[in-house]
Amino acid sequence: MTQAEKIYTLETACFSDPWSITAVENQLNSENSVWLITEENNVPCGYALGSIVCGEAELYRIAVSPDFRRKGLGEAILSDFIEKCRQLDGEKIFLEVRSRNIPAISLYKKAGFEEISVRKGYYGDDDAVIFAKILN
Questions:
Q1: Rounded to whole angstroms, how far apart are CA atoms 69 and 131?
Q2: pLDDT tens digits along 94-104
Q3: Which residues are catalytic?
Q4: b/e sequence 82-104, b meaning 16+ C-beta within 10 Å
Q5: pLDDT per residue over 100-118, tens digit each?
């Protein structure tokens, strides 16, 4: 199974609006791509996928398989993504999340992200909350 296939498997297990396998492959092959995948016994458990351009990173997707949730894996993946961005000379990371996704918002706040904006009705039935974190 390729890395793209592993991420796509997690996409379909975790999101009601999963990215296509082609979209995942395109992102992984982008020169600005920042990503990581965590596995246990060759089973994909979680991943983070984003990009970095001119010191500004964006986290597009982060997910943990339902079988591996509530074990701190999301926090570890986010921490590793942040560190990877630092190593690539990232100065700031942005992300957006549905306003009703309280577990994700809690995770981001715990990791030091701050709410900077809200896009009303962005998801149709929900707002998008924009977060940013300055990397030191």
A1: 22
A2: 999 999 999 99
A3: 96, 108
A4: bebbeeeebeebbbbbebeeeeb
A5: 999 999 999 999 999 999 9
Structure tokens at 129: 């909350």
CA–CA dist 67, 123 (Å, integer)? 27
Cα torsion 79, 82, 86, 87: sign: positive
Cα–Cα distance for residue pair 45/7, rounded to 1 Å: 9
Residues in the chain, total: 136
CA angle 106, 56, 130 (to 5 degrees): 35
Beta-bridge partner residues of 65: none
Domains of the chain are 3-134 (3.40.630.30)
What is residue 16's predicted lDDT score, i.e. its pLDDT?
Answer: 87
Chain-centroid distance of CA 53 in Å reads: 16
pLDDT per residue as tens digits for the range 37-81: 999 998 999 999 999 999 999 999 999 999 999 899 999 999 999
